[in-house]
Amino acid sequence: MTVFAMTEPALLRLFERLDFAPQPKDQALSRLFERWQQKRNGRIAPTAKEMGVPELGEDAASAFMLQWDSHQDEPELTFSGAAFDSLMGPCDPGAAVLIEAPERRNAARLRRLGRLVKERAEPVLAEFDATLGDDIRIRAEIVLTPLSSRGKDIDGLFGGVAVRHHHAPEPRLRHAHRIPSGTEPLLFSLKSGAAIGQRIAQHLGQSLQPHEERDFEDGEHKSRPLVDVRGRDVIVFSGLHGGFGQSVNDRLCRLLFFIGALKDAGARHVTVITPYLCYARKDRRTKTSDPVTTRYVGQLFEAIGTDRLITMEVHNLAAFENAFRLSTTHLNPYAAFGRHIAAVAGSEPVAVVSPDIGGAKRAELFRQDLEDILQRPVSKGIADKQRSMGRVTGDLFAGDVSGCTTVILDDLISTGTTMARVAQQCRDHGATHVIVAATHGVGGEASLRNLTKPAIDAVILANTIPQTPAFMISLGSKLTILDVSDVFAQAIGSA
């Protein structure tokens, strides 16, 4: 039932369509709403846990979740997919996005919808036209449903967002969207990189250009730009991590096909920004006939026509530079990590520890940067496993961490086993506070068993890989995710 006849004039100005008997047009929103209906099962509303964001698969990219705290008037964001960030602007978990989101008018719309859902304890569907940034016209569809942790009152919201760009018919494609003038590159972000892509574009003062990503019933897909790229420099943001319904291979294939489409459409120069580069750990042969997958990935990017690739904190920098013959830029998050650790440590002594011999150079570079920030000496340490006949027979540890806030630094966390082991070694050697820090949180929920161990006081990650709500909730205040989008923006600006 469409309810415009029963609503106040203010709502008529905010929405093109408002319906309390939702029938979403978008397939992902329809599946999200069906899931909510199934979990509701005759009650006032399901709980946030029952909605199981990690179980949503690819539909998680369209979903978001908000939760009211008993002491706050506005709900806090607990999870958001790429579609939510594209509508509201870059949003961090824990933020009161309905009043703090960069896209203020869209936040005001969602705030009004949230009040309706909370008052009525019923779902609502809304559609409206909006402008993102300076000139991107979109049609948004939102389905918003209530959540209840106690089964009595509404204390949360679960929703989905679908955003469609307004563009001209295909024969007039070049007039579909106003392209930035001058020498500014055109920015595109695939769904897998939408969150950090939005942030980078914001730092650059530009808007993301519209594109199409379409999936077919047999699992095939296509992607294409919806603006004319002929003769232009193009930058593409894409995540190459697994999870949320897509594997590493799915995302790598989608990115390669999109680069090919850009080149076929006449793009002059294509730069790829992938905060986490997949297959970077397989950089050498350890057994007969082993693949050197890092090199193969480099050959794929080169073959499709990539001109430049920018990434952050690969597993082995020398192997990466040897594997990629095209132009590359390698970044690190040390400045962001250093500022945060300086604030945490205060005047306490600090030590930096490498969890293995292979990461010793990485840890030493960070230690030197941290000394520059702190303006005082920083101790160092190194740990390693002692192996005999292919079996771990003991642990090695060198360095003085006694009485120190100790930072164990690595490029990524997979299962967290090594980090937990080294954290305990640091404790045994007198460390007073142990922080594990890594650029990429690859393991996600699989690492929780180790990261929640008492030897670890804090976990620091960069926002190169999105994390699930379950991961963030499980670690709680122990977890800090630092934004490194400004590092990528500076790399683009200095090119």
Automatic annotation (TrEMBL):
Its EC number is 2.7.6.1. SUPFAM superfamilies: PRTase-like. GO terms for molecular function: ATP binding; kinase activity; magnesium ion binding; ribose phosphate diphosphokinase activity. It is an enzyme of class 2 (transferase). It comes from the Bacteria. Pfam families: PAS_5, Pribosyl_synth, Pribosyltran_N. It catalyses: D-ribose 5-phosphate + ATP = 5-phospho-alpha-D-ribose 1-diphosphate + AMP + H(+). GO terms for biological process: 5-phosphoribose 1-diphosphate biosynthetic process; purine nucleotide biosynthetic process. It comes from Microvirga flocculans. This is ribose-phosphate diphosphokinase. The lineage of its organism: Bacteria, Pseudomonadati, Pseudomonadota, Alphaproteobacteria, Hyphomicrobiales. One of its GO terms (cellular component) is ribose phosphate diphosphokinase complex. Residues 187-305 form the Ribose-phosphate pyrophosphokinase N-terminal domain. NCBIfam families: ribP_PPkin (TIGR01251). Keywords: ATP-binding, Kinase, Nucleotide biosynthesis, Nucleotide-binding, Transferase. InterPro entries: DUF1457, Pribosyltran_N, PRTase-like, PRTase_dom, Rib-P_diPkinase.
